[in-house]
Amino acid sequence: MGNLLLCLVLYVQVLVGTVAAAGARPPAMYVFGSSILDVGNNNYLPGGAVGRANRRYNGIDFPASIPTGRFSNGYNIADYVAKNMGFACSPPAYLSLAPDSSGPLVHTAVAYGISYASGGAGILDSTNTGNTIPLSKQVQYFGATKAKMVAAIGPCAVNARLSRAIFVIAIGNNDMSVSAAAERAQNKSATDRRRDVATLYVNLVSNYSSAITVQCSRLVMHDYAIIFSKRTMSSIPLYLENTQHFSPLAHTHILQFAPFLYHL
């Protein structure tokens, strides 16, 4: 897992370096994903089964050594991306900004950006359902945010800012982990496992494409749809150790799946 996380960090750093070298700090940064990017959204979700990073030793190396909702001892990947972009840290969690009101939410969204990432989230709504904010809901929250921004400063100003903003997406690891755990709990034949793996990745591709290329193109001006923006950083970490019980063909499915997403 360490090597895979390192690959993810290096992948993001390369993209960050490319974008940062192009000029001044972007106007805002919008974050979508799971626990490696979450900065506190899960702390505001109801229910005892929700994974929250609100206790020691989360945040022990963060300024003031307090839990911040990050699944980390200090800053997380979103923070380091933001720092490289010229921000002090990651933009704040959407649910921490009283999203039912417009004041703090709109000011923050315009001036800094918003994080919609949620620990445990997946591309599929069924992944850890009820205990997280799935990608589809995160995109809906972004749509609600944009609508309030438009009401406050007008569509032209909003679209101009979004066209120069950074969008960071890192999600998919939980879908794979949940699927792998379910496979281990069932005594299936090798043929059935291969079929299930193939079905999973077809569903992931379909749902990811729908959330990003279809829904987001409706939320941002067509010329600046998130997935086509040169200022998008998108990554789905591959937790191959979670699928070691699968056949070599299953690993082939995984390796074929990643480039498709990276080049959307």
TrEMBL record:
Signal peptide: 1-21
Name under which the protein is recorded: SGNH hydrolase-type esterase domain-containing protein
InterPro entries: GDSL, GDSL_Est/Lipase, SGNH_hydro_sf
Xref: Gene3D superfamilies: SGNH hydrolase (3.40.50.1110)
Single GO molecular function: hydrolase activity, acting on ester bonds
Biological-process GO terms, alphabetical: lipid catabolic process
Family from the record: Belongs to the 'GDSL' lipolytic enzyme family.
Keywords linked to the UniProt accession: Hydrolase, Lipid degradation, Lipid metabolism, Signal
